[in-house]
Amino acid sequence: MGSLDGKNAIVTGGASGIGRAVAERLAAEGASMTVADVDEEAGNETARSIGGHFVRCDVSDPAQLDAAVAEARGAGYLDIAHLNAGITTGENDLTSLSRDAYRRAMGINLDGVIFGTKSCLGAMRNGGSIITTASLAGLGAMPSDIIYSVNKHAVVGFVRSAAPQLAEHGISINAICPGFVDTPILGPFGERFRQAGFPLLEATEVADALMKVLDSGLSGEVFVVQPGLIAEPYRFRGLPGPRTEGAQGMVPPVQPGP
Ligand SMILES: NC(=O)c1ccc[n+]([C@@H]2O[C@H](COP(=O)([O-])OP(=O)(O)OC[C@H]3O[C@@H](n4cnc5c(N)ncnc54)[C@H](O)[C@@H]3O)[C@@H](O)[C@H]2O)c1
């Protein structure tokens, strides 16, 4: 008996790296897995190896996300969604950054999370859990890939801002922010890290972190994962309030919203 027997789960970007490790872990816990990815060969292979099924899905297209989520819920509900697919921008010089490279990164890294969440809202019931893969580049500056860092900051802001609304549906949303993980996304930099003796996370350690998030019962949190550090919610500093006479540190009476 696994802890996730009878649960339906989807992992975007599940054909490789972190997503694959998470798909394997959730399947080992008994979840019925859907692997969503643009890489059909690797995605099918992952799905086959865990007894799940593969859906071709480009996460930058909301209609494809809707279709993948519909497939994952089947005749029931979706219980767990790991919105994980991501890319690096591949262009970092702002003087020559192309709109295409910018839109591609925004589409996959950010639209994929926001519209993925929207798709999940129509397919989850009370108790559903959404976990996004952000990055430490979403908490600190990453001058070597500016747009990637922008995307990941946005994912962190989305998770923190959307959590109260999702709570009204009984759905939790959290982010995982790993440091550098030994996956194909690092490209040739992986070897540079190894040569420098810099510790890289294994994708399975990020899967461990995801299980911890699922068990936490928390929402709106951003879990930092670093080698040797047990995944834990990042503690943000409070924002300074007004400092005018009579309104020291006053909290706004309303949160502007819909
Ligand atoms: N590896 C790291 O150091 C690291 C650190 C922090 C965060 N992350 C984040 O982790 C997530 C997973 O990355 P990874 O390290 O496993 O890399 P990876 O390259 O091994 O896996 C990424 C997967 O996303 C898929 N993908 C790419 N574009 C897609 C699209 N349009 N639609 C659907 N799937 C698509 C790829 O085919 C691949 O299977 C990403 O969001 C990445 O930004 C990675």
Structure notes:
It is a single chain. The chain has helices spanning 17-28, 40-50, 62-73, 99-121, 146-167, 189-196, 203-216, and strands spanning 8-12, 32-37, 53-56, 78-83, 124-133, 172-178, 222-226, 229-233. It has an 8-stranded mixed sheet with strand order 3-2-1-4-5-6-7-8, sandwiched between helices. Helix 1 (17-28) links the parallel strand 1 and strand 2. It has one domain (8-233): NAD(P)-binding Rossmann-like Domain (Rossmann fold, 3-Layer(aba) Sandwich), CATH 3.40.50. Helix 1 (17-28) runs parallel beside helix 2 (40-50), helix 1 (17-28) crosses helix 7 (203-216) and helix 3 packs parallel to helix 4 (99-121). It starts with 7 loop residues before the first strand and ends in a 25-residue tail after the last strand. The relative contact order is 0.12. The chain has 258 residues and is of the alpha/beta class. It binds nicotinamide-adenine-dinucleotide. Nicotinamide-adenine-dinucleotide binds at residues 12-13, 15-19, 37-39, 57-60, 84-87, 108, 133, 135, 178, 180-181, 183-186. Nicotinamide-adenine-dinucleotide (NAD) binds at residues 12-13, 15-19, 37-39, 57-60, 84-87, 108, 133, 135, 178, 180-181, 183-186.
